[in-house]
Specification:
Number of helices of chain A: 11
Oligomer: homodimer
Largest interface: A-B, 71 and 71 residues
Number of strands of chain A: 17
Strand content of chain A: 15-25%
Distance between the termini of chain A: 36 Å
Largest sheet of chain A: 9 strands, mixed
Structural class of chain A: alpha/beta
Order of helices and strands of chain A: HEHEHEHEHEHEHEHEEHEEHEEEEHEE
């Protein structure tokens, strides 16, 4: 991760901290590598934009070959639709009440829209919201493959898809999220196998009601290298675009493939054994633990031991301490909660010479 | 906390979830009660706006009698200065490099500006940034009173204030943050005593270099009821405006004094023993633990057991489960990280009849 420090040294005079820095060359390599992996496996890529929430990055993913984008809520989908993205899957079990129902209907008028559903009541609410335009909304049934979060049992997929069809909605297929693949390096392949097995059951269940799915959609950065096209048609990785320490620990990326860090300044050195950085939970989230810390200084073994809102506590062994004013690159454990804290990214490349600023367009659009 | 559910029931058709809801009457009571407490003790109130980041709420705090506001970084101060606030204390050990130094200078031209400093290097950097206008910037020396975060030893306050004076800056006084008062109900009074003892030492240290402080500034919502005006001149509470479960556990507020919750919808009921709410770390932060959970359903003993980015896991005992589509009020453990996730507050009162939207003006302004 020393390239992070090198890039930072080159641009430190031009930025105020804390600031999230993207190395665009590393990010582009991540995008291209994921696309090449999917191409080899005969799978479509539909990247999850929740990780970056940035129109410019979404455009680069499409340019590399992505078939469309995945969003986590209606607000994200609206921001990207307004920017011209015309093939959006909200991979979330939406509840279409009140004005949210109207927003979904309006979105479906301007873009090809797929949304998740895992229960019959939600399907009826979506159909009610669409009124006479149900045929404009594609339903992708969510099934659980072992993450035990949302998703119907795989064998119930056909029943739910048939319910959508009866209400005039378009049953487009099934999706699942193998979240249990993040439990450890050895969990990744097992979760991918669970995912495939569950999707096979779901596809059979769809066949039993006469539905051939147009899409069979799978996660995720940690499991994607084990996905095959036996039934899966597309993958929805998100974190791969930036990567982070959690993915490096899982073996889902190398440390050199981490494309985002947060630049932070040492602001206080008054308490022995530590320094304070200007990076707290409002900049990097509270992702981590006392064991692994809450973010690491790139190229070192030092980790943030504790966070307040605007203060990061960095313990220092053996009396070594960076001087007040030193700017260091902090690599997050989990990158997704970082980006929502900032107005914009500082974008450079490994040499640190260029500097652009890209808006975090969909930050704050949570509902 | 049943009033939260009642207010929510009255406005549920008019909002999309997740959304942060303020009960303006409860909030106003909190503002007035804090002001009355300070008035009784002969202390000024300088509320910390990091908690709400909202100009309208800052105005209400001033109207109730606050002498000015406290900010956590330059960006927050800029947003409030632009909105007309003219007495701002950035209670943070600022490092005034590059463009941040220029921003501090510009801010000091338009508002009465106090900033924190806890080391000589930072004082020199501030003076350098101010160039010939050092006299426009007031320095408040930060001392540590036991939180072991930032802050010089109390006896060093005079030396630092003298260094500021030598550079033409205005040594306005001292401040400290008794963060160790949040360790438990019994820690509050002890931390307040530590705070007072440390400030007495600091004031003596200032006297030794011939400086009579204009301000001796103390925290914080959990400790404020134990503050006296023996040396302290002002208090900087932040969380009291909304309150939260952590403050209720500490005994620093009652549950009925909690003025903010996040409305969330049950979106999935497919995994036995739990339901999923549309509230994850990107809405409520990861504040809590497996013991206390990550947020509570108001008026019940149910707590979120686990969070993903857009999913909250709510375990349900004995087979009881709210139906999909049910909207519930989720009370955060720690309110400050919630507000930065949203564009705007939904503002109502306990009856839930009115509905306004107030911008979270300073969200994202982190540096």
């Amino acid at each position: 991760m020393n390239r992070l420090q090198q890039a930072l040294d080159a641009l430190v005079e031009r930025i105020d901290t804390p600031a999230p820095i993207i190395l665009a060359d590393v990010m582009q390599d991540n995008i291209d590598r994921m696309q090449a992996l999917a191409d080899r496996q005969g799978l479509d890529v539909r990247p999850h934009v929740k990780t970056h929430k940035c129109v410019e990055i979404g455009r680069r993913q499409l340019k590399a070959g992505a078939v469309g984008i995945t969003a986590g809520n209606v607000g994200e989908a609206e921001v990207f639709a307004k920017a011209g993205f015309d093939d959006i899957f909200i991979a979330y079990p939406l509840w279409a009440a009140g004005t949210k129902g109207q927003r979904i209907r309006k979105l479906a008028e301007t873009t090809r829209l797929r949304v998740g559903a895992d229960n019959v009541a939600a399907i009826h609410a979506l159909a009610d919201a669409m009124e006479d335009d149900a045929g404009q909304l594609e339903i992708v049934v969510e099934i659980d493959c072992g993450a035990r979060r949302s998703g119907a049992p795989p064998a119930a997929a056909g029943e739910l898809a048939a319910a959508a069809r009866r209400r005039g909605l378009v049953p487009a297929g099934v999706f699942t999220y193998p979240g249990h693949g993040s439990a450890g390096p050895e969990a990744r392949e097992r979760a991918a196998k669970d995912q495939e097995a569950a999707l096979i059951v779901a596809v059979r269940s769809l066949a039993a009601v006469g539905i051939t799915p147009e899409v069979v959609s799978a996660g995720s950065t940690p499991t994607v290298e084990f996905a095959t096209n036996s039934v899966i048609t597309e993958i929805r990785p998100g974190e791969y675009v930036f990567n982070d320490l959690n993915n490096a620990r899982l073996g889902a990326c190398t440390q050199d493939q981490i494309a985002l860090f947060v630049a932070a300044t040492v602001v206080s050195d008054q308490v022995p054994g530590q320094v304070i950085l200007d990076i707290g939970t409002k900049a990097i989230g509270r992702e981590g633990s006392s064991e692994i810390g809450f973010g690491a200084i790139a190229g070192t073994s030092a980790v943030l031991a504790k966070l307040n809102e605007y203060h990061g506590f960095l313990p220092l062994p053996g009396g070594v301490r960076p001087r007040v004013g030193t700017v260091v690159p902090v690599v997050p454990n989990h990158v997704c909660p970082v980006v929502v804290n900032f107005e914009e990214y500082v974008v450079t490349e490994s040499s640190g010479t260029s500097l652009e600023r890209w808006a975090v367009d969909a930050r704050g659009f949570l509902n």
